[in-house]
Every structure is written in structure tokens, then in C-alpha cells.
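Go through this one:
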Amino acid sequence: KQWYQRRVAITAGNYLQVKLQAEKQKITKLQSILHDTGHEKINTHTVFVDSDSEVDEFNPDNFEMPLKRTKQPPEVHKALCKIKKQQYSLLRLRVERAESLQQAASKLKLQRTIAASKGSVKKTVDEETGVVTYKWRKQRAK
């Protein structure tokens, strides 16, 4: 029975790590698409020139991209705003899910560490912050 519980704990920990990694990848993908997420978007723009001499003379600091803006109908603009709002809420939910997965994985890892430890473990709770810490009694190595 004990080996089975240990096996389940290991499998659960691995499962949480896989799900956490997948969530982080999805978060990164959404952050690269959306603006104002605190994640830098890598913008690339290719400029085509006719000759090698123009390549030498080209200065990207002085280059201004031509703006091509068209007026959108109100229905299209409303639909795009709705989609953008949904994507931001999806990003917020994914970040919250990743945080909860991270907490669950750390708790499981701590439980595994405590269960595998030899010797006595003293649990202390900080009264102000409520943070739980564990201390092991020092044992002399033989």
C-alpha cells in the first residue's frame, strides 16, 4: 500500500508539471499576440530595396513605414473589440490557473520531501504572515 501511495504522488507531481508547462506555453503565446501584457512583442518588418548601394545607405532609424488604415464598419469594430476582450479574459484565467498549478506542485513536492526525510521534522508557523516552515534536526554524518 505504501509503495502505491508513493507511486501516485510521483505520477501526480509529473502530471502537474506537464500541465504547468503547457499553461506557461499558452500564456506566452497569448502574451505575444496581445498588447499591454508586460511582455515585449517582437516586431519584425522586412524592407525591400532595389540595389546593394541602397542597402548600404539604408538607416532603420529614419525609416517611416507607410500607414495604411481603413475605416472599419461599426459592426466589425464591435466584434473585434469583443474578441479582444475575450482573449484578455482568457489570458487572465490561464495566469490564475498556472499559479494554482504551481502552488499545488510545490505543496506536493514539499509533502514528498517530508515523507522521504529521515529524522524528526519541526513545523513552525510565522504568526504575522502565516508562512509555514519546516526544520530538520541536525544529525551528525557517520
